[in-house]
């Protein structure tokens, strides 16, 4: 019996070893991973083989990049082959600058452009306080957007579409920041589509806990990938010796240190420590950012590395 030919496809949703694959003609079908391991993620380009009215993933094509987090218990892959990551936070509930920094570090390590968006600008006092907290990130030349997704004007929606246009963007952020509102704003009916995908993958109650790909335009040039909210963002895959390299405010000074293997924690002649913000250097490296670096360096240095 002749085996079915291999066809190209794109993973647009997954649940365990079950994947929703978009075929080259735009139609979608359920595929299963070959073997016991489930290595595919949303955004993967694959070769699949028909088997009845479903399919089997035979090969995952080489990735441009992979955005993921890793802690002591597991590695959580968000998506692959991304052009940018939108980190959506809100004035309320208050965001964690440590979690924001961790997500930015993971993006830098993966070579993916991050964009920060602060939602709920209609909450004047908490928003201005949160906007002030983001000043160090604006100084690092990260793009930082002001949003009021609940009351967004058409001109603001058009500006967002321009940022996303022609790109594949992963949207991440804590629960309550407004990811569902953003997705539905740019892709009306997206939540209903999520329910249909979940039913197709037989994932039942897990409708809001799976990463899902949405085409924003009819030409299929612009894609948004919705991901589950997260409370923790482990960076166990980051070498502490390279940590400063993924933090732009420190990287710009790190190469000027006296010692090539400077940890930027206590060594004499450390240019990073010399660049910390002070009364005489108010635009220096944020003390809060340096505290995040120090704590993360200690956390990563405590891991066994082979």
Provide an overview of this structure.
- By secondary structure, the chain is an alpha/beta fold.
- It has 3 domains: 55 residues, OB fold (Dihydrolipoamide Acetyltransferase, E2P) (Beta Barrel); 161 residues, P-loop containing nucleotide triphosphate hydrolases (Rossmann fold, 3-Layer(aba) Sandwich); 62 residues, Ribonucleotide Reductase Protein R1, domain 1, CATH 1.10.40.
- The chain is 28% helix and 25% strand.
- It has 9 helices and 13 strands.
- It has a 6-stranded mixed beta sheet, with helices on both faces. A 5-stranded mixed β-barrel has the order 1-2-3-5-4.
- It is globular.
- The termini are far apart.
- About 2% of the residues have low confidence.
List keywords for this structure.
306 residues; Rossmann fold; Ribonucleotide Reductase Protein R1, domain 1; 13 strands; six-stranded mixed sheet; OB fold (Dihydrolipoamide Acetyltransferase, E2P); five-stranded mixed barrel; alpha/beta; 25% strand; 3 domains
Q: How do the helices and strands line up, and which of them pair or pack?
A:
Elements: E1 6-15, E2 18-23, E3 28-33, E4 45-51, E5 54-60, E6 66-70, E7 75-80, E8 84-90, H1 97-110, E9 113-119, H2 124-133, H3 135-139, E10 143-146, H4 154-164, E11 168-172, H5 179-186, H6 190-200, E12 212-215, E13 223-226, H7 248-254, H8 271-274, H9 287-301
Parallel strand pairs: 3-5, 8-9, 8-11, 9-10, 11-13
Antiparallel strand pairs: 1-2, 1-4, 2-3, 4-5, 6-7, 12-13
């Amino acid at each position: 019996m002749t085996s079915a030919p291999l066809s190209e496809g794109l993973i647009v949703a997954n649940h365990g070893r079950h994947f929703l694959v978009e075929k080259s003609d735009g139609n979608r079908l359920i595929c299963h991973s070959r073997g016991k391991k489930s290595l595919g993620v949303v955004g993967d380009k694959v070769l699949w083989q028909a088997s009845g009215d479903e399919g089997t993933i035979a090969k995952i094509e080489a990735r441009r990049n992979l955005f993921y987090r890793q802690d002591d218990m597991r590695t959580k892959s968000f998506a692959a082959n991304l052009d940018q990551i939108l980190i959506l936070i809100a004035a309320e509930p208050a965001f964690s600058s440590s979690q924001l920094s961790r997500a930015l570090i993971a993006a830098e390590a993966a070579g993916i452009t991050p964009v920060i968006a602060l939602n709920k600008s209609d909450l004047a006092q908490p928003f201005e306080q949160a906007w002030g907290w983001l000043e160090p990130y604006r100084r690092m030349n990260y793009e930082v957007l002001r949003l009021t997704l609940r009351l967004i004007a058409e001109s603001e929606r058009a500006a967002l579409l321009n940022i996303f246009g022609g790109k594949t963007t992963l949207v991440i952020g804590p629960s309550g920041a407004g990811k569902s509102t953003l997705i539905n704003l740019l892709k009306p009916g997206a939540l209903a589509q999520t329910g249909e995908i979940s039913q197709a993958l037989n994932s039942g109650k897990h409708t809001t806990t799976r990463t899902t790909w949405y085409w924003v335009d009819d030409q299929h040039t612009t894609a948004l990938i919705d991901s589950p909210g997260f409370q923790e963002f482990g960076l166990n895959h980051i070498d502490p010796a390279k940590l400063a390299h993924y933090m732009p405010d420190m990287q710009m000074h790190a190469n000027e240190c006296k010692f090539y293997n400077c940890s930027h924690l206590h060594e004499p002649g450390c240019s990073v420590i010399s660049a910390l913000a002070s009364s005489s250097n108010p635009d220096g490296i944020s003390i809060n950012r340096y505290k995040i670096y120090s704590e993360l360096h200690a956390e990563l240095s405590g891991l066994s590395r082979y």
